Structure formats: structure tokens, C-alpha cells
Amino acid sequence: MELFEKVSKDIVAAMKAKDKVTLEALRNIKKVFIEAKTAPGANDTLDDAAALKILQKLAKQGHDSADLYTQQNRPDLAEAEMAQVKVIESYLPKAMSAEEIEAAVKEIIAQTGATSIKEMGKVMGVASKQLAGKADGKTISDVVKKLLA
Asked: How confident is the model at residue 134 (pLDDT cuts 50, 70, 90)?
């Protein structure tokens, strides 16, 4: 089942359960999915890879907002934001540990034959595709730099 369809079905379930937090988060996700589907050049389709990128972006934005609310001494808003982030993160694949990321990057470096930091772009291109949704781009970049240095 595609993520778009799963979110749609979960909206109905959240309505029946009268779960306002989950319902609000899922409606926001669906709104962004629909915007992506109807964007110029999208051909009215949204594959799971694009949907995962959207979910990651929404989760990151939620974390950033919660941090900002915490800094501004608004724990009520931070708590509400984090509740929605938890719903969003439930649709993301389990994040890889630092050791798993390093092992995957070592394998990619071996595949590409990269030997110096000058070839970081080649490694990052492959790593970004293979680890999409499982690891943060900045984390991947840091590991690649460390291993090629």
C-alpha cells in the first residue's frame, strides 16, 4: 500500500477514534502530499520515495518548531508540536544507527573506488540514494568526510 493511501485510511481511523492530535497531523501530511501530487511536472503521481522525503521534511520542521517554542518558553506549544512529530515519524522507516551508516558508507566507498575527499561527490550521490529515508543527509556527509579524509 502506498503511503498516500495509508495516510488516507489512517485519517478515517483517527476520526472514528476521535484522536485529534493524530487526525490533525495526518490531515497536514495529506495536504502536503496532495500539493506535491498537483505540482507542475508531477503528473498527478506521488511515489513512496517522494512521500518519504516529504515526511522527513515535515518531521525536521516539527523538531525545529518545537525547539523554537522551547527557547521561547512555550512548553505547551512545543509539546503539541512534538506530539504531531511522533505521528509523522511513525510513517518513516527506522533510522539507522551511526555504526550502520558508517558500515554502509564504507561499502559504498568500496563500490565507487573513491580514495580521496575530492571524490566525495561521487560517494554522496550513491549514498544519498541508497540511504534515503534511513539516515539524515548531514550525518551521511559527515561520515563520508571522515572516511575519505
From this structure: confident
